[in-house]
Amino acid sequence: MNIKTYDAIVVGCGFAGAVTANILSEKQNKKVLIVEKRNHIGGNCYDEKDEYGVLIHKYGPHIFHTNSKKVFEYLSEYTEWYDYSHEVVAKVGDEYIPVPFNLNSLKKVYGENCAKVLANKLIDQYEYGRKVPILELRNSSDEDVRGIADYVYENVFLKYTMKQWGQTPEQIDPAVTARVPVLVSDDNRYFQDTYQGMPKDGYTKVFEKMLDNPNITVMLGQDAAECIEFDDNGIKVFDQYFIGDIIFTGPIDELFGCRYGRLPYRTLKFEFEHKDEDSYQPNAVVNYTVSEDYTRITEYKKLTGQIIDGTTIMREYPMAYTGEDGQIPYYSIINDENVELYNKYVTLVKKYRNFHLLGRLAEYKYYNIDAIVEKAMELAERLA
Length: 384
Ligand code: FAD
Ligand code: UDP
What we know:
There is one protein chain. The protein has helices at residues 15-26, 69-76, 103-110, 112-126, 134-137, 143-165, 174-177, 203-210, 252-255, 300-304, 336-349, 369-382; strands at residues 8-11, 32-35, 47-49, 55-57, 64-66, 81-82, 88-92, 95-99, 131-132, 182-183, 195-199, 216-219, 228-231, 234-237, 240-241, 245-248, 265-275, 285-287, 296-299, 311-320, 331-332, 355-357. By secondary structure, it is α+β, with helices and mostly antiparallel strands. The strands form six sheets. Strands 8-7-18-19-20-17-21 form a seven-stranded mixed beta sheet. Strand 1 (8-11), helix 1 and strand 2 form a beta-alpha-beta unit. The mean pLDDT is 97. Uridine-5'-diphosphate (UDP) binds at residues 90, 99, 156-157, 160-161, 164, 176-177, 179-180, 287, 289.
């Protein structure tokens, strides 16, 4: 392979890589090689039909949501949308309560009358519509509000967080639990963003369209760690020095043989099951916040709007990422120590001006789809 025929190399074909390649090729007419170690495009957003014809997300449920008009309009060039607003419930005993915990959840837990009094207290303290992180609610000066906070902490956050992270809500980055705040409103939606929905024909089709350009070559089943080398003179790809831009969207420690130690991540084991029934659970996602070893069950056809007999569900079991074959690092564990380790790896590539770190893995951040699409758009525009 003559690597010099390409203007840029993108490692990883999730949203970070695909959006970058799309813009470099379409807007800047650059020839782009994408190197992807899996045998498919789409990264963690990849979806496909299972043996029963049900459209499933192979790496966990992905719901698109954003407040960015720019991101929404960009993606809308590659898909129409199934108008879906995500609503999650937590199974607590025999009850299903809306999550994020809101004024409707309050009624389910405390009964109409008592909930009315408590709702007024919350509205007085925080005003209607506010989103209050659970750790902030626990510090309320009002005893009744602290009572609600204790209930929510115990029944929504503590055990789910222990399963997901192996740590308590106090031990993890507060920004993580703040993603699902207590909502002082009657809005049952999981996200309050202006734009939300699911790509009408699935995510994989979005990627196929973004990459449908003669300027783009996708090489699947190729680990960048096996074809990229750094030395004093520059970066070699397939044994040839490459001076064009290299956009790397994988975990940076693995590119350097984890020489300073592995960057800590949480991974997930997914267990799929097909049921002959038409409906398995009330919502597309049910969180198990007080029982079970899994965190949540997704019923895919309720997420995608697919009309089909039978249904496929998926349970998620979180665990520590060890790097063993087949495991995928899904969640960075963000704390001072881990960020320091991450920065040590960044130091190794800083001097290479044509090497760019982008994405949830490469930046060791907790990005949603819209954030990563926006960052990829910005980087690609900067590289013009
Ligand atoms: P990825 O999608 O992980 O893509 C990186 C790609 O790089 C992968 O294909 C990987 O195989 C490849 N790669 C890695 N290392 C190498 C290497 N050495 N050589 C070659 N290729 C390599 N966001 C939302 O907005 N809504 C949601 O509902 C949502 N749900 C989620 C649920 C789960 C379980 C998870 C884990 C994440 C969820 N996200 C959600 C976040 C979303 O998945 C990410 O924002 C998005 O996938 C990030 O894209 P990316 O390209 O940075 O990473
Ligand atoms: N969380 C929780 N209970 C829930 C939902 C979320 O404890 O019912 C906490 C948990 O720590 C989780 C974090 O809030 O990791 C963020 O949740 P989110 O749904 O945003 O996680 P993701 O979809 O990214 O896995």
